[in-house]
Amino acid sequence: MDREAILSTLSVRLLIAYIRLGKVPARLDVPIGLALVDPDHFGIEHHNSIEATRKLLEQAPMSTHLRVTLVTACTDWLTAITLAALACEEDDIEDSPEWIFASALIQAGRVSNEIDLAEGILDGKIPTEGIGE
Hints:
4 helices; mainly alpha; elongated
């Protein structure tokens, strides 16, 4: 398994997810924004921005379904980036356990799915009225 290639793929997926995740909370009645992304410098400020957004989403006015979806997307993004950072702590990335890369890719995929769900709720394509609230 080429861990460098997987890490590269993961970085791209997390960057795309970050950009997409920034667009959804900006559409809320009380818009929430993320730090601007420089594709050449993706660092701790982006982690901190997602973490702060996650906390704000817990208090922002919206349906429970949308809140849970967005908070989960933020949590999964934070998990994926943390796992990626953990994988990079090894002296040689090839020594990092394979499960860390697999888990990070799974989390990145979940973020994409959760963003799709949140967009569907906001666009009215996924009705939530009367479901579990």
